[in-house]
User: Fold these one by one.
Assistant:
Number 1:
Amino acid sequence: MKRLLAGIIVIGLLLGAVWYARGPIALAITDRALDKAMRDDAVAKLPDGLHAFVCGSGSPLPDKDRNGPCTAVIAGGRIFLVDAGEGAAESFARAGIPAGRIEGVFLTHFHSDHLDGLSAVALQRWVGKAATTPLTLTGPPGVERIAAGLNELYAIDNGYRTAHHGAPVAPPSGGGFAARAFAFPDGQDSLVVLNDGGLKVTVFKVDHGPADPAVGYRFDYKGRSLVVSGDSSAAPNLVANSKGADLLIHDALQPALVRRMAAAANEAGLKNRAKILEDIINYHASPEEVARQGKEAGVKAVLLTHIVPPMPLRGLEVPFLGEARKTFGGPLWIARDRDLISLPAGSTKIDRRRLGR
Ligand SMILES: [Zn+2]
Ligand SMILES: [Zn+2]
């Protein structure tokens, strides 16, 4: 009994000492984590090939598990974003990918959820590498207005940054955005917008009316390929431009679940919310439609993103997918933020893992 009592006293004293020293312990842990974070470059560790990093798998609907729509495509160490929804910069920091390495952004359309994170990305890139040129926004006509508006919104802030940190750290020429608009020639619904260093990027029209223009992008690098749909309902042009791709990354909305949300909103007398929920059903593809299109295009794997509605319970993934996995017959995943899908060059492998915490 005495020994037990002595043991309890010793454990109590030890816990007390740890409690008393919790500040210095937390600082020591933080110093180690900071050292790692400052040196981290997850992209430098990747094999040569094509990689897709999910910087946001959500939608305009608030979702505690998902940032706004954002896909980073990494090819031979170069990083491009397709859209930059809210939280994009945070995803890069959590995954250990330096934002200073981002070379440019391809915009699919101008819905706010695809633009909300642009400014944070531009700021992190600018000061992350003392960029001397602004972040390029490549997109359909209208992208000039987006760049001009953002530049005006943050002109005062950019001035503060340079004045505070000095031009060598925040060069005035590197803040903000530069627009690079493309236009489809008459009768053409796809166009190569980048072709250098072995990387080819093809833009193609999709169907997201009344949001028009709306486009998707195909990336080809060293025999590997992936397609990012942007927001689209089922579209034959997407199938045509996805032929034989290794990976199709497509937006997905499950109508049955959204209708349940609309019914609940109606019941609660929230007519506005119910109307919006009903309106969005027909301008996104369902998981089953994505699966059918992926099969038709002969893609090797499918990653569903821009997930609507939010799924606070894991079990909801079953009704969300419906018959999609059976229809496609190959690997078909629901994207999580910070997923990395790797397509190494000189191989047929498709690897999926998650970066950071
Ligand atoms: Zn969207
Ligand atoms: Zn949209």
Number 2:
Amino acid sequence: MHEMSLAEGILRQVEATARREAARRVTRVILEIGALASVEIEALRFCFDAAARDTLAATAQLEIRVLPGRGWCMLCAQSTPLAALAAPCPRCGSFQVQPVSGMEMRIKEIEIE
Ligand SMILES: [Zn+2]
């Protein structure tokens, strides 16, 4: 499952940061995930909780902010909101839309104590 390796990757970064700061535990992790990143949010939450069990982030609250997707419609020659990677342009219905943002996933903030 692709969400499990994502969760493990996130936890590795979170733990590395927490250790560098000599934290006792991680209280909150805030992630930003683009709407076009092909990440199942609920699956990621589940995997994060499972993978965090024996880490400094075992009791951390996971907050996920979904960033909207945007694309560039070739026909309208305009930027447009994009709900999914294969979605048509909401203005003209064309599928010639290049995704320009919303594919990213990053750790926005980590709270430790
Ligand atoms: Zn269009």
